[in-house]
Specification:
Oligomer: single chain
CATH superfamily of the largest domain: 5'-nuclease
Radius of gyration: 16 Å
CATH architecture of the largest domain: 3-Layer(aba) Sandwich
Largest sheet: 5 strands, parallel
CATH topology of the largest domain: Rossmann fold
Helix content: 40-55%
Shape: globular
Order of helices and strands: EHHEHHEHEHEHHHH
Strand content: 5-15%
Distance between the termini: 22 Å
Number of domains: 2
Strand order of the largest sheet: 3-2-1-4-5
């Protein structure tokens, strides 16, 4: 799996608990994590629409920390590819273009219908739901996934989150396989 490169779609970078877990997993050297400036802009825009208590400066700080903490994560020079791509939602062409330019193997997204597998196959890319992506990691390196979840749960400190709280958050994010894995490894998270 260490040779795998995964591009995170904006929909998995918001909400924050999933973003935190995916970033922590990306730091574990299980795979290489990637995203683009357009993906950043999309998740930031969505957060600002849903969370009026936050501001662009706070989210720009998060974006900058992501870019600095994850080696070679920011994909550039992909915009010229986007117009030549055909997807059900033309607004997603930048995501596929970044995945192609970033030499990604997988696009981690909730929006599987927007990335038809037969079309992506021509580029050697698959789209995976974040639950399936993390489940695959948990089968290969359960210790690393438990460690990442423990670190992420520990950062949720206002207020502190119990294991039940953390598992509940992941359940709300439509991650049933991850929830089963976390339940089975409660003492490690």
């Amino acid at each position: 799996m260490a040779g795998i490169t995964a591009l995170y779609d904006a929909c998995v970078l918001y909400p924050a608990p999933l973003r935190d877990l995916l970033l922590q997993l990306g730091l574990s050297d299980l795979f290489r994590a990637k995203w683009s400036a357009d993906i950043h802009e999309e998740w930031i825009r969505n957060v600002l629409e849903q969370r009026p208590d936050l501001n662009r400066m706070q989210l720009s700080r998060t974006r900058d920390l992501m870019d600095r903490s994850t080696r070679d994560a920011l994909v550039t020079n992909y915009a010229e590819l986007a117009p030549s791509l055909t997807l059900p939602d033309p607004d997603d062409r930048h995501v596929l273009a970044a995945a192609i330019r970033g030499r990604c193997d997988v696009i981690v997204t909730y929006n599987l219908k927007d990335f038809p597998s037969d079309y992506l196959m021509a580029f050697g890319i698959v789209a995976q739901h974040p639950d399936k992506f993390i489940a695959h990691l948990s089968k290969l390196r359960p210790d690393s996934v438990c460690h990442a979840a423990r670190l992420c749960r520990g950062r949720l400190s206002k207020p502190a989150k119990s294991v039940d709280d953390y598992v509940g958050i992941m359940a709300q994010l439509q991650l049933p396989e991850l929830v089963r894995f976390l339940d089975a490894n409660r003492d490690l998270i």
